[in-house]
Design brief:
The structure holds two protein chains of two kinds.
Chain A (H helix, E strand, L loop, with lengths): L2 H12 L20 H10 L3 E5 L2 H12 L5 E3 L25 E5 L2 E3 L5 E4 H4 L4 H4 L2 E7 L3 E2 L2 H8 L6 E5 L4 E2 L7 E2 L6 E7 L1
Parallel strand pairs in A: 1-11, 2-3, 3-6, 4-7, 6-11
Antiparallel strand pairs in A: 4-5, 5-8, 9-10
Chain B lengths: L6 H8 L3 H23 L4 H17 L1 H14 L3 E5 L2 H15 L3 E4 L3 H5 L2 H7 L3 E4 L2 H8 L16 H12 L8 H18 L2 E4 L3 E3 L4 E6 L3 H8 L2 E7 L3 E2 L5 H12 L7 E5 L7 E7 L3 H6 L14 H5 L1 H6 L10 H11 L16 H5 L6 H14 L5 H15 L1 H17 L25 H8 L3
Parallel strand pairs in B: 1-10, 2-3, 2-4, 4-7, 5-8, 7-10
Antiparallel strand pairs in B: 5-6, 6-9
Helix pairs in contact in B: 2-12, 3-12, 9-10, 16-18, 19-20
Classes of the chains: A alpha/beta, B alpha/beta.
């Protein structure tokens, strides 16, 4: 017998009586998404938030604050003037020296400050992890209150890879001292269009 | 992490340095307090725990079906699925994939399963270099130690010691113990590994039967850096990591980090569904005793564990004895239930490394009856003859004394007289109760004698 058959037979032989899945409808009751809560938590987890009215304002802030950064990349067509858009077919290793990656997010979660990106927004899966700083553009109508609401929106959508990203990369492995920028971005900026 | 010494012997070693024990204790308690603060912000916390526990129960009851569904869906997504009955098979599968691609150097993000399987040792014997990329795991790897905590692998290390370790291995300036500086040094050291290694192994936090995807949670981003830059991604998972539906992640991701560190969510909760273009993705489904534990009615709930570490952070014994005293990959209360399932003889001491205070069960996000199970293991281990004979004899003598009022009365008298008149007979190294504590002062009379004297008044 193969390992597969042995394991499945052993599991089948050991598993207890049927119990049903619980009803989790109560967790899906709509709760109002609060951009103030989102902003508070985003800052508590080490990111910076900018409230902006449109993509033009995003552009202005990026130009003002990050003009000096040598390598900026984006997948947002409207930002083509201020960041490189011709990196789509690149070998992921070549993104090693990216100073700032500017990407769209599909969702923002108010209870934990996480944003949801699929590989469509990342273009290369490694982009939001390898860049020195990550900037996310999100419209306020994409905010949801809880993780349950987030998965309601995600539903059974198709993606090869997707991730909830909550703040810059961090570690507290050395005596519980929080350090931003363990392996991934040292800074995370969120532009909330509202 | 085989040891001939018992938990109490290893704990005694850890306890030689009292200020260090206090520091360890306070650090973990601080994390427990952060957990409390995060939990109190959610009025629905108890409902979440209950729902998670019930979902996991349903998983255990239908594990074979969920495994088959997961396999089917993962294969449809383009992932290769392997099955390993034990640690040896798991390690051989990983090695065969390395051989197939002619790879001798790899990166690995945190996976307690590979610790359980002793993968690093096995691969080292076969000439493969494994770099652990979680900062805490890299620190203990450089120090040639196993992790002492499943979430905080080097919680027992002081920054000055890490500074020395990095000076020796990474060439940082001597005497620099600044966490920011040391983390940056590790970042540079490990980034080179991410960029050059062709194979990355990660653990799995949750695998979804319905979609064939799996979720890996890290704060550092090391799992993603490894997986997205490598040609081959292997994800190793215990068969109990399954959950039925994607929407159930909403519950488990809310529970996991609030319980672990008090964060509302990990920095990265990455959902891997298909290999990236040109990449190979493999999943190794590992049993290694889990199907046996599933058949033990009293202990099967331990398979609900999501490895948050809350039971360790709160445990008065873990906090004061250190993770290494448990001489098993998963330390603390939950580890003490899982380990005897693998080897009753080797781990017979662990269910006794508890005060049975119940704090572990109170904080467990999936409501495992941890302290009850520890108590039940004690009974199984004594009945099957795995505990020391002296302890059994002492317990029998105690039972006889307690069941015979006359004998109890005179034994009490003798005991009180001895402590008062010849304290050296009890306050000595031969008496294990005297270790790390003073014996109490004995009263002149027992309650029984006092009552007989006073009841007429």
């Amino acid at each position: 017998m193969s390992a597969r058959e042995r394991i499945l037979a052993a599991v089948k032989n050991s598993q207890p009586e049927h119990t049903p899945l619980p009803d989790i409808a109560f967790l899906k009751e709509p709760v109002l998404a609060s951009k103030e809560q989102f902003a508070t938590i985003v800052q508590a987890i080490g990111a910076t938030i900018f409230f902006v009215k449109d993509i033009t304002e995003v552009k202005e802030i990026l130009q003002e604050k990050f003009q000096q950064l040598p390598r900026k990349i984006t997948s947002i067509a409207a930002l083509a003037g201020i960041a490189d858009v011709n990196w789509i077919a690149a070998d992921p290793h070549s993104l090693e020296n990216v100073d700032l990656a500017i990407l769209d997010a599909r969702l923002g979660v108010c209870e934990n400050g996480a944003v949801w990106l699929t590989e469509n927004e990342m273009v290369q899966r490694v982009t939001p992890f390898i860049a020195d700083s990550l900037a996310i553009v999100l419209t306020a109508d994409k905010l949801v209150a809880t993780m349950h609401a987030a998965y309601e929106v995600i539903g059974d959508s198709q993606y090869g890879f997707a991730s909830f990203i909550a703040g810059p990369s961090k570690t507290a492995d050395i005596e519980q001292s929080l350090v931003l920028g363990a392996h991934g971005p040292r800074n995370m900026f969120i532009f909330l269009i509202h | 992490m085989h040891s001939d010494k018992t938990h109490s012997e290893l704990a005694e070693k850890f306890n030689i340095d009292e200020p260090r024990v206090n520091w360890h204790d306070e650090t973990l308690w601080w994390i427990r307090q952060k957990r409390d603060k995060a939990v109190w912000q959610l009025p629905e916390w108890e409902s979440l725990r209950e729902a998670a526990s019930q979902i996991k129960h349903n998983v255990l009851a239908h594990l074979s079906e969920y495994l088959e569904a997961f396999e089917r869906n993962a294969i449809a997504n383009g992932i290769t699925v392997h099955w390993a009955a034990d640690a040896k098979e798991h390690n051989e599968i990983v090695y065969s994939l390395l051989q197939k691609h002619g790879i001798t150097q790899m990166v690995k993000s945190k996976s307690m399963l590979t610790e359980e399987c002793h993968l690093n040792d096995y691969l080292a014997e076969h000439g493969v270099e494994v770099i652990d990329t979680d900062l805490g795991e890299r620190i203990v790897q450089l120090a040639k130690e196993p992790p002492s905590h499943i979430v905080l692998p080097c919680i027992h290390w002081k920054k000055e010691e890490i500074g020395e370790l990095f000076h020796k291995y990474l060439g940082t300036p001597e005497g620099n113990a600044d966490p920011q500086f040391l983390t940056h040094a590790a970042r540079l050291h490990l980034r080179e590994k991410f960029l050059t290694r062709k194979l990355a192994l990660t653990g799995v936090n949750f695998a979804i039967a319905e979609t064939g995807e799996f979720v890996v949670c890290t704060n550092e981003g090391n799992a993603d850096m490894g997986a997205h830059l490598a040609d081959v991604h292997i994800a190793s998972m215990g068969i109990e990591k399954l959950i039925p539906k994607r929407e159930h992640l909403g519950i488990f991701l809310r529970l996991l980090t609030r319980s672990a560190t008090g964060q509302p969510i990990t920095t990265y909760s990455s959902h891997f569904k298909q290999p990236r273009k040109g990449q190979e993705m493999h999943i190794v489904l590992v049993d290694n005793g889990r199907s046996v534990q599933l058949g033990r009615e009293a202990f099967r709930n331990s398979l609900k564990c999501i490895r948050c570490g809350a039971c360790m952070n709160t445990c008065p014994v873990y906090r004061r004895s250190g993770g290494h005293s448990y001489h098993t990959a998963v330390a603390g209360p939950i580890g003490s239930i899982l380990a005897p399932n693998l080897d009753m003889k080797q781990y017979a001491d662990l269910p006794f490394a508890s005060t049975l205070c119940g704090s572990c069960s109170n904080v467990c996000p999936v409501k495992i009856d941890i302290h009850d199970q520890l108590y039940k293991w004690r009974q199984v281990l004594v009945q099957d003859g795995y505990t020391p004979k002296a302890k059994t004899l002492a317990m029998k003598a105690m039972a006889t004394t307690l069941s015979k009022p006359g004998m109890y009365k005179s034994a009490g008298k003798v005991g009180r007289w001895m402590i008062r008149k010849v304290p050296g007979l009890v306050n000595n190294k031969l008496n294990p109760w005297y270790k790390q504590r003073e014996m109490p002062e004995a009263p002149k009379q027992s309650f029984r004698e006092w009552y007989a004297q006073n009841k007429k008044k």
